[in-house]
């Protein structure tokens, strides 16, 4: 079998090995069914059980209250950028508040602007998106339709350590790149959504956790596939859902509940992994320049540059030879980025940390 490398890609990202091995064993024929998961009907009792178990796992991991729906949807997070304002901004006569902490927040507000008025409650662009705002910096409208945040900016590597206080206005969160990395107080949110391909499964499915009262506010004049109420009434199966992707979400959440032991333990492991890399950055006398300010550093995406930019190519080449792949920063910002999602083993992060220190020492000579 081909040797697996340590894949630091921001997504699609590494999946837990036990989940991949289970999928591999069952790929040709599910036990007791005789049909591949790639072939099975979404109307079958077998898949009904799988999607219900995936939802039950998510509810247990995140302590999702009974007055929230869990939906499995097409289109990734970018479709949610449009669906949220289509359902809750268009035609309301209100504006929506957006807190912009990086590239994905900017994409979200661009989509919202096609549906109604928006207000930038805070924008970190002047500081090159190196931090999240302090509470007293956020200029909120108490009559806003909703407040939108991106909990973790994959490209800039900044993360909210906790939710901002938005009063009684529904808080909407794109949690794509830190979903399931830590416990979350779901009751603080009106909607929390995430594409799966960072921490929850493969590309092809988005997970939406939405409060019942918001579900009921969805307007009647939207296409069915873009209407949260219709999708909720159809229990995520208005049309054929991404069957295999939902199956993988079930396997990944099985792993989180079983082998890891829940999100408190996952957070502990993630903090430890991230600290190894930030320690390497901080120990090297300015050789590495971390993008995010310490209080806003992401535990999922560690972004940095090498002060001598001419060395970055060699750094990436040597890392690749050691089986440390996909460390190049996003094309819009350059530099380097290590995405260390839940499934990235501690061994891979240790190897990267040791390599960073070794590369620094060699470059001084």
In short:
The chain is α/β, with parallel strands linked by helices.
Describe this structure in words.
The chain has two domains: 17-260, 3-Layer(aba) Sandwich (Aspartate Aminotransferase, domain 2), CATH 3.40.640; 262-364, Aspartate Aminotransferase, domain 1 (Alpha-Beta Complex). The protein has ten helices and 14 strands. Strand 3 (95-100), helix 4 (103-112) and strand 4 (117-123) form a beta-alpha-beta unit. The two termini are 39 Å apart. 36% of the residues lie in helices and 16% in strands. It is globular and about 70 Å long. The model has no long low-confidence stretch (mean pLDDT 96). The strands form four sheets. A seven-stranded mixed beta sheet has the order 2-10-9-8-5-3-4, sandwiched between helices. The longest helix is centred in the last third of the chain and has 21 residues, at 263-283. It is α/β, with parallel strands linked by helices and 365 residues long. Helix 1 (17-26) packs across helix 7, helix 2 crosses helix 7 and helix 3 crosses helix 4 (103-112).
Descriptive tags:
2 domains; 14 strands; 7-stranded mixed beta sheet; Aspartate Aminotransferase, domain 1; 3-stranded antiparallel beta sheet; globular; Aspartate Aminotransferase, domain 2; alpha/beta
> What's the oligomerization state?
single chain
- Which CATH class of the largest domain is shown? Alpha Beta
CATH architecture of the largest domain: 3-Layer(aba) Sandwich
Q: Between the first and last Cα atoms, what is the distance in angstroms?
A: 39 Å
Number of domains: 2
Point out poorly predicted stretches: none
What value does the average pLDDT take?
96
The CATH superfamily of the largest domain turns out to be Type I PLP-dependent aspartate aminotransferase-like (Major domain)
Q: What is the 3D form?
A: globular
Radius of gyration: 21 Å
The tally of beta strands, per DSSP, is 14
Which structural class fits the helix and strand makeup?
alpha/beta
- Give the amount of beta strand, in percent: 15-25%
- CATH fold topology of the largest domain: Aspartate Aminotransferase, domain 2
**Discrete helix count:** 10
The neighbouring-strand order within the major sheet is: 2-10-9-8-5-3-4
Secondary-structure element string: EHHEHEHEEEEEEEHHHHEEHEEH
